[in-house]
Design goal:
CATH architecture of one domain: 3-Layer(aba) Sandwich
Distance between the termini: 88 Å
Structural class: alpha/beta
Oligomer: single chain
CATH topology of one domain: Rossmann fold
Length: 598
């Protein structure tokens, strides 16, 4: 009875509810809304690049590249050592010598045609095989004792005759290298009626001696006496040992060619104009160059505006970095707040005693006091004038946030004051971390003084960055490096305008733009080695011989130009000149999609 009552009540309520909904629906009116056909809005992608990210020779980028290259080199050396042992064991390590075969003279004219000699080939090793063990060939006891061996179903093997899948090719035996066989001949003209002949009796082919030499070289056979001499400032085919000394501004110059290599990468547009990057790198022979003696100054801000965590990183970085100085260096450590306090009265030779005293001095630093960055930095830049600006470069490592609380200058006046005091041998490297940093001041303080600002966003990265840079820049081999282009139009568009010193294991870059119709690049590089000798290189490269890059070279060149223009703006006090620079910066930035951070 209860169940039937439940169903009756439920049915009644359901009917009543539906009746109410139907009556309500009749009272609702719907309007026909005609919608315009929707059009998909055009998407717009704005890609902005911060010029600071495109500056050449950023140490963090170099460090990543160097680390990867070091790992790859280590792996290659291990593999090379194994192959060397194998080839020595099989007596295959000897370099095959070319063979000479006389053609066109004597008995060879009447002799029957002989089989062609075997073509040159390098020593080879057997190709690897995929090894498989059939379970049907293994005893039941061995199968039951299996612990970690993986069992797989048998795979069908396909023979692929291509060198790109060496593991599937049939193996071959070890074979030694075979050198080339070179055919040599002599073209002779009329010998006259005398019994002997001399060079004057040979037929005149209308060529000069150099043209004949070039023709012989193209044919693959060049007499030893015709090997071209050193290229570069000494000319394309002149031997510097057989001519007088080369002089620049009354000073004797030695070649730099054999110690560095120059690589040019370019991007050329449809109209023939384009952009290029030139890279200068020491080659293995640069190990023969002595290190350039230099002075190093660690200038540490420990005022109250420097947080405890930041000062801790400053101290830890300097203490470890001092371990990596070059034995030929001199150094000093200066702490500053509203005034500077040097550890030594003058630069001291780097040895165990001075190193320990420097590290102990840094370890005792504590926060406190006001901040005067300019007043603490300027006297040490000014004092370097006594060195004459040539004999010992000074690397000044400044650790600060760039914010002064006393003796406050605006950024432009600050930079102008330091540049005027710099005799040219001071490089300023500022190291900063975090967000509360005067980046503009530190960026252009370094840019105008042959250095840069090495800034890290995260404080914990500071120590490693400082140590990595100083440890990888202890060996300076060419100081005061300068470049010149053969055309003023090319030189006007090269950035940066001033190169840093060249360190062992480092690559320096500069970027330029070339007009349509350019056929070749000609640059001259010069600098001083560890003995103070002036060295120079003249580099010539046709566009056809250059490496090819992407259109990003244009954006990188534009970033360099924008940075240079901002730097010029900081050095001028004229409102009109500043306005012209600002308009030019805006024009370049808008054309190349650059985000100007200042």
């Amino acid at each position: 009875m209860k169940r039937s009552s439940y169903f009756l009540v439920s049915a009644t309520l359901s009917i009543a509810l539906h009746a109410i909904l139907i009556l309500g629906a009749d009272s609702i009116t719907f309007r026909d809304i005609t919608r315009a056909p929707s059009t998909k809005p055009r998407s717009m992608v704005i890609r902005m690049i911060d010029p600071r990210d495109r500056l050449a020779n950023r140490p963090n980028i170099r460090r990543r590249i160097n680390e990867e290259s070091t790992r790859n080199l280590a792996d290659a050396e291990k593999a090379a050592a194994k192959l060397k042992k194998l080839f020595e064991k099989e007596h295959l390590s000897a370099v095959p010598k070319p063979k000479l075969r006389l053609k066109g003279l004597g008995r060879d004219i009447l002799a029957p045609k002989l089989p062609e000699p075997e073509k040159a080939r390098a020593a080879t090793a057997p190709r690897p095989k995929i090894i498989e063990i059939d379970a049907n060939d293994i005893s039941p006891q061995r199968l039951s004792a299996r612990t970690s061996e993986a069992m797989h179903s048998k795979l069908a093997r396909t023979y692929i005759p291509t060198k790109f899948v060496p593991s599937l090719l049939s193996p071959g035996s070890l074979s030694g290298g075979i050198g080339s066989t070179i055919d040599i001949a002599m073209r002779m003209g009329a010998l006259g009626k005398r019994g002997a002949f001399n060079v004057g009796d040979l037929a005149d082919d209308g060529l000069t001696a150099q043209e004949r030499l070039n023709a012989a070289a193209r044919g693959g056979f060049t007499p030893m006496g015709g090997i071209p001499g050193l290229r570069g400032i000494f000319g394309a085919d002149k031997d510097p040992t057989k001519q007088g000394p080369i002089m620049i501004n009354g000073e004797r110059v030695m070649p730099l060619d054999e110690f560095v290599q120059v690589t040019v990468t370019l991007f050329q547009g449809r109209d023939g104009s384009g952009y290029y990057q030139a890279e200068i790198s020491p080659n293995p022979r640069s190990e023969q160059l002595k290190d350039v003696p230099k002075d190093l100054l660690f200038l540490i801000d420990h005022s109250a505006s420097i947080s405890a965590g930041k000062l801790k990183q400053f101290k830890a970085g300097v203490i470890e970095a001092i371990e990596y100085l070059n034995p030929s260096d001199r150094f000093n450590v200066v702490s500053f707040t509203d005034r500077a306090r040097p550890l030594f009265p003058e630069f001291m030779p780097y040895n165990a005693d001075t190193k320990a005293r420097g590290q102990a001095f840094v370890a005792k630093l504590a926060r406190g006091g006001m901040t005067d960055v300019f007043g603490s930095l300027a006297p040490y830049v000014q004092a370097s004038n006594s060195s004459g600006g040539r004999d010992r470069p000074l690397n000044l490592f400044l650790m600060t946030d760039g914010n002064s609380t006393v003796n406050i200058y605006d950024d432009d006046r600050f930079i102008q004051g330091i540049v005027k005091k710099n005799p040219g041998n001071v490089s300023i490297y500022s190291f900063s971390a975090g967000s509360r940093v005067n980046r503009e001041l530190l960026d252009f303080l370094g840019y105008h003084n042959r250095g840069f600002n090495l800034h890290v966003a995260k404080l914990k990265q500071f120590k490693g960055t400082l140590v990595d840079y100083i440890s990888s820049h202890s060996s300076l081999i060419v100081a005061d490096l300068k470049y010149q282009a053969n055309q003023k139009s090319l030189e006007r568009d090269i950035f940066p305008k001033r190169l840093q010193h060249l360190y062992r294991g480092e690559t320096l870059s500069f970027f330029g733009r070339f007009p349509a119709g350019t056929k070749e690049f000609v640059f001259r590089l010069q600098g001083r080695d560890g003995t103070g000798t002036l060295r120079a290189l003249q580099f010539r490269r046709s566009l056809k011989e250059c490496l090819r890059g992407s259109g990003e070279l244009g954006r990188t060149w534009a970033s360099q130009k924008v940075f240079h223009l901002i730097g010029e703006r900081t050095l001028t006090s004229s409102p009109e000149a500043k306005g012209r620079r600002t308009r030019e910066i805006t024009k370049v930035a808008e054309k190349f999609g650059l985000l100007v951070p200042y």
